[in-house]
Automatic annotation (TrEMBL):
Gene3D superfamilies with a match to the protein in the record: Crotonobetainyl-coa:carnitine coa-transferase, domain 1 (3.40.50.10540), formyl-coa transferase, domain 3 (3.30.1540.10)
Keyword Transferase found: yes
Keyword terms, alphabetized: Transferase
Source organism per UniProt: Alcaligenes aquatilis
Protein name, as recorded: CoA transferase
SUPFAM superfamilies found in the cross-reference section: CoA-transferase family III (CaiB/BaiF)
């Protein structure tokens, strides 16, 4: 399936093949964290074979509305959620719980470089598809397991989902309005950040293992846990706690370590102002008509501004409400003070910078005609990512993919055909 309507930057003649051209990935994942990882690998040029349950496939195919529509405005079987993480993959409909299905997956694993799975700990061992079993037939296989809590520890066998991991891993203790303000209380992020960051850590780990294999010639098992990734990604907030012994609290749209770095009301809406140093603060105060604030000992340096956050916010908020958002965005841009609008997604994809970076692409789709998607943010000068296929329909590539990997005359494929 050819891509269409993709920018010249994405379809320009590559000087070298895509970074993972020729790499084969066996994808036994579903939902988001695993598919996000394997979509990254697919965008980088890998051949990704998505193994799905017959009839139902990846759970997210049904996570709608909205669903992708045909040119006649009829819903297809593909939910928008599923489309977000399954580009450039080939779908194979296969029952791994059957002996024949498990045999086919084992035969494919013998020919693949990478396997990614997100079953419960030990869940694939009963089919002979665990790391130890597959390592015995393919020592070069890089096998990445993505679970809620990892392969070890007292919670290892428990299921884990993004929402509960955001809560358990500290994210929701930091997200949301302050408890002493209206609407205060714990709040999850607007997208599944634990899943997405786990997918990114898994991608990085797999690429590192590929590089290591180029030296050792051997694969290895990668153990990626949602909870580990959620804890790790709290970054400076972790260090705020580890250094001070005090758990940071929710601060709404404010920043625990920088002031002012927050949303401000304007005459006709809201914008964000993000001050990162004292020079920017001085320029900002001049622009809003309060140069005297810079000389106030309570506000002169950032550490003092953090201590006197509420007093400073009253002064700045009153000044910002005197003019509309467009006035402030233009004025602050001229003096190099970081500020920006709060866009909905219509505003995002209409933004000139987003359009200039070609972050919206379209791929041909056999039922819908075409599907709009978000481009990969990975940009290479000489071996760019490629957009080869829209997210596949369930089992769309079963026969051709199995023949490609196993060969038309393989005994596993013959047995699978014979048993239907």
């Amino acid at each position: 399936m050819e891509h269409c309507n993709v920018s010249d930057q994405h379809v320009s003649q590559a000087i070298r093949p895509a970074p993972l051209d020729g790499i084969r990935v066996l994808d036994l994942t579903r939902i988001l964290a695993g598919p996000w990882c394997t979509q990254n690998l697919a965008d980088l040029g890998a051949n990704v074979y998505k193994i799905e349950r017959p009839e139902t496939g990846d759970d997210t195919r049904a996570w709608g509305p909205p669903f992708l529509q045909t040119p006649d405005k009829e819903d297809t079987a593909e939910a928008a959620y599923y489309l977000s993480a399954n580009r450039n993959k080939q779908s194979i409909s296969l029952d791994i719980a059957s002996q024949e299905g498990a045999d086919v997956v084992r035969a494919m694993a013998r020919e693949c470089d990478i396997l990614v799975e997100n079953f419960k700990v030990g869940g694939l061992a009963k089919y002979g598809l665990d790391y130890a079993s597959l390592k015995a037939i393919n020592p070069r296989l890089i096998y990445c397991s993505i679970t809620g809590f990892g392969q070890t520890g007292p919670y290892a066998e428990r299921p884990g989902y993004d929402f509960m991991i955001q809560a358990m891993g500290g994210m929701m203790s930091l997200t949301g309005e302050r408890d002493d303000k209206p609407g205060g209380g714990p709040q999850k992020a607007g997208v599944a950040v634990a899943d997405l960051m786990t997918g990114m850590y898994a991608t990085s780990s797999i690429l590192a293992a590929l590089f290591e294999r180029s030296r050792s010639g051997l694969g290895q098992h990668i153990d990626i846990a949602l909870l580990d990734c959620q804890v790790a990604m709290l970054a400076n907030q972790n260090m705020n706690y580890l250094v001070s012994g005090q758990a940071p609290k929710r601060a709404g749209n404010a920043h625990q370590n920088l002031v002012p770095y927050q949303v401000f009301p304007t005459k006709d809406g809201h914008i964000i102002v993000a001050i990162g140093n004292n020079r920017q603060f001085a320029a900002y105060c001049e622009a809003i008509g309060h140069p005297e604030v810079v000389e106030d000992e309570r506000f002169r340096i950032n550490s003092q501004r953090v201590k006197h956050r509420d007093e400073l916010e009253q002064i700045l908020s009153a000044a910002m409400q005197k003019h509309p958002s467009a006035y402030w965005l233009e004025a602050l841009d001229k003096i190099g003070v970081p500020a920006g609008p709060i866009n909905d997604l219509h505003g995002v994809f209409s933004h000139p910078q987003v359009q200039a970076r070609n972050m919206r692409i379209e791929l041909a789709h056999s039922q819908a005609g075409k599907v709009s998607m978000t481009a990969s943010p990975m940009r290479f000068s000489d071996s760019p990512v490629s957009y080869r296929m829209a997210p596949p329909q369930l089992g769309e590539h079963t026969e051709q993919a199995l023949q490609s990997v196993l060969g038309a005359d393989s005994p596993e494929l013959k047995q699978w055909r014979d048993r239907n």
